[in-house]
Design brief:
With 158 residues, this protein is of the alpha+beta class. It contains four helices and nine strands. The strands form four sheets. The chain has a three-stranded mixed β-sheet with strand order 1-5-2. The protein has a two-stranded antiparallel ribbon with strand order 3-4. The longest helix is centred in the first third of the chain and has 20 residues. 34% of the residues are buried. The model has no long low-confidence stretch (mean pLDDT 92).
């Protein structure tokens, strides 16, 4: 049986690697969580919702019901999707990348996501939000030896 802590540790490690590769280590430390959330693969909190002594942190969540129950390529694409939101939020001035309560992703989001090897599709309801890994991202994930990692609830410990 796979432990939730193993999954979170892996996602934290993946965050560090993708931060270096796609964001030049510009993203701040965040709290990575896994929980249920209806209708999405992941989310980024637009405010710092975690506190540790004098430090505060944003949160990136990859949802357990939808987000993790996919290929590792899609999971990492979702993580990078949320990192794009973090990048936009932490720029000076912040890059406006969503509207309609954070659900509709605009062209600024699409531009930033494409720079990070994501393929972004359009939906009338959520804008430029439909996220897939590019062939370059898939090759990068394979180069890390992550090809066969399964983070779903039913996965066994490798």
């Amino acid at each position: 049986m796979q432990q939730l802590s193993d999954i979170v540790r892996f996602l934290e490690h993946a965050y560090e690697i993708t931060n270096a590769k796609y964001f030049n280590n510009e993203l701040p430390k965040v709290i990575i969580s896994v929980s249920q959330a209806r209708g999405c693969y992941g989310y980024f909190t637009t405010s710092k919702v975690w506190k540790d002594n004098d430090n505060t942190y944003f949160e990136i969540c990859i949802t357990s019901d939808l987000g993790l129950n996919r290929s590792i390529y899609s999971v990492i694409a979702t993580l990078i999707h949320e990192q794009v939101h973090c990048f936009c939020a932490t720029q000076t001035p912040p890059i406006k990348n969503v509207s309609r309560g954070g659900h509709y992703h605009n062209k600024n989001f699409r531009e930033q996501a494409k720079k990070r090897c994501l393929v972004i599709g359009f939906s009338n309801k959520i804008g430029w939000s439909i996220t897939s890994p590019s062939t370059d991202l898939i090759a990068f994930i394979d180069s890390l030896g992550w090809k066969d990692i399964d983070l779903s609830r039913t996965a066994a410990i490798p």
